[in-house]
Fold this protein.
Amino acid sequence: MSTMVPLEGRLSPELVVPQISQWRSTALLRLGAHIGWILMGRGFSMVAQWHTRARQRRQLMMLNPRLLKDVGLTQADAYRESLKPFWRK
């Protein structure tokens, strides 16, 4: 004797699949937004680092030979460093 269980109280595949699909798309959107914020934060950090390098290289060129010698650089070293673009280490 077989007993038939009505589907009314159970989740049918037609109802479960859209819910999972919706959950996945929401999770992917959240993940994408999170990654976007991380990349934007890294971008801001990189721009700040570039700004710092440019400022330090300008200031390095203003140091007199005695101060350059104190930090272990020659005027040629300071000049060479100041010619580097801000994005290069």
